[in-house]
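Field reference: "sequence" (input) and "structure" (output). Example, PZP protein:
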Amino acid sequence: LSFQHSVVRNALFCLETAANEKENHVYTKALLAYAFALAGNREKRKALLDSLEKEAVRKDGSVHWQRPGKEPEADLPYYRRRAPSAEVEMTAYVLLAHLTSQPAPAQEELAFASLIARWISSQQNPNGGFSSTQ
């Protein structure tokens, strides 16, 4: 369906209303940023990505997002716990939002996206898969 179709217009209006909420969960912001990237709404996409960047967890040369109020994990030698599937999913949606840009993403955005991709790749299990079903 085109963006002019009434169903699509209504859906985008609903998403814009949700994006304007005062308090949005980080997972919701990630989904909205990707949806607006796909819809070509650069302003909403940028506003959500800017908000998400403030909530990003930067660690060991990578970037990811986690649920608010999550207990910090203990650093155990020789053991690396994989993130819950929701955190892998929301981080992947933020990566998609960064890479789904018209015109093509700027160099700075690609550099930031590579930090996100680094974290996602660190979450792979020994078989090459992820805990996420998405």
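The domain at 6-72+79-123 is CATH 1.50.10.20 (Glycosyltransferase).
The CA atoms of residues 11 and 17 lie 10 Å apart.
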